[in-house]
DNA sequence: TATTTACTCTATCTAGTAAGTAGGGTATTG
DNA sequence: CAATACCCTACTTACTAGATAGAGTAAATA
């Protein structure tokens, strides 16, 4: 299950990817636009900033903006950051491997085998999808209205 | 995350797939073999029986056995049964679709788009893997010792 | 430099759920 | 009829997601 944190994070990042990178967005405006509880979003954006995904500016005219190009921000990083490893079981994780206490021999464990495939399939999708590619696919469905 | 219930269920089913289908296995023996708390396993096997995956026999010489051929029992059914839909978000589920309250237009929602791909990738793996196919792949790694 | 704006950080609350336990009930078989 | 082994309900415990509160700090501008 994707947590609300991860979900809100992706929505907020997509919204930021649609804006000028030099023009920061305020928490309150983002929250209203994406229907996210403002204080909760605050926590999320702070986390994204500490991970180096966002940068912030304080004071009047301040807010958050992307720290790098949307084509270099991948969903895999965001989801792992809030929800931990992609693998359904720790013994199938690439980034946070942990042995199962109840498993005698991983090489002949059916659960391990199957879940490693699930992890690989998931990682292929999420580590292959950037904010930019996601945005361009959304725009294919509904092109932005020119001014 | 895969729940322990689902994980134990798969392990138990694989163990049963290795045995004669006419010779039931007792909860206690299964629990010992797979390192599962016996009372917890009892709950799990009962569930599998109610879903028609297992059949049981009471009294002396009783126990559990598979209700159908291992090639016709898919991991997708087992995982869904214990952990619910495969999709990371309800709006991406095929078997248990539910609209997001905070989503204005699903067709242009990046989260929806990406998570639908994750769900499809996961389903492809789990609905394509039967107990029989999983077992045969385990045996490729370590062939069973003949008597 | 005073004031406003807006991010920063820590603590707390609540409801829900996963994991496991307890114990009595019921059907079968020898 | 006695032993075996499944059947079923209820409960406990610990953890976590999701959210809220409020005081603190930095920056901009009038």
Residue-averaged pLDDT of chain A, rounded?
95
Task: Work out the helix count of chain A.
Answer: 6
Q: How much of the polypeptide of chain A forms β-strand, as a percent range?
A: 5-15%
Biggest beta sheet attributes of chain A: 2 strands, antiparallel
- Basic shape of chain A: elongated
Number of strands of chain A: 2
Q: Helix- and strand-based class of chain A? A: mainly alpha
Unreliable stretches covering 5 or more consecutive residues of chain A:
none
Q: What is the rounded Rg of chain A?
A: 18 Å
Describe this structure in words.
2 copies of one chain form a homodimer. The first copy, chain A, is 49% helix and 5% strand. With 147 residues, the first copy, chain A, is mainly α. In chain A, strand 1 (54-57) and strand 2 form a beta hairpin. The model of chain A has no long low-confidence stretch (mean pLDDT 95). At the A-B interface, helix 1, helix 5 and helix 6 of A face helix 1, helix 5 and helix 6 of B. Chain A binds a DNA duplex (30 and 30 nucleotides) through helix 3.
Short précis:
The structure is a homodimer of 147-residue chains. With 147 residues, the first copy, chain A, is mainly alpha-helical.
Per-chain topology:
The structure is a homodimer of 147-residue chains.
Chain A: H1 4-17, H2 27-34, H3 38-50, E1 54-57, E2 63-66, H4 75-83, H5 110-126, H6 131-141
Antiparallel strand pairs in A: 1-2
Chain A binds a DNA duplex (30 and 30 nucleotides) through residues 3-5, 26-28, 37, 39-40, 42-43, 45-46, 49, 56-64.
């Amino acid at each position: 299950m994707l947590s609300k944190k991860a979900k809100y994070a992706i929505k907020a990042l997509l919204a930021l990817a649609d804006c000028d990178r030099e023009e920061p967005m305020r928490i309150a405006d983002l929250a209203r636009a994406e229907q996210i509880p403002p204080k909760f979003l605050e926590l999320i954006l702070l986390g994204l900033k500490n991970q180096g995904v966002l940068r912030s500016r304080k004071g009047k005219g301040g807010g958050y903006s992307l720290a790098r190009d949307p084509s270099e921000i991948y969903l895999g990083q965001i989801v792992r950051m809030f929800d931990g490893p992609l693998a359904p079981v720790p013994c199938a994780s690439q980034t946070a491997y942990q042995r199962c206490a109840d498993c005698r021999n991983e090489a002949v464990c059916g659960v391990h085998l199957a879940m490693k495939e699930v992890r690989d399939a998931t990682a292929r999708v999420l580590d292959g999808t950037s904010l930019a590619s996601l945005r361009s696919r959304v725009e294919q469905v509904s092109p932005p209205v020119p001014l």
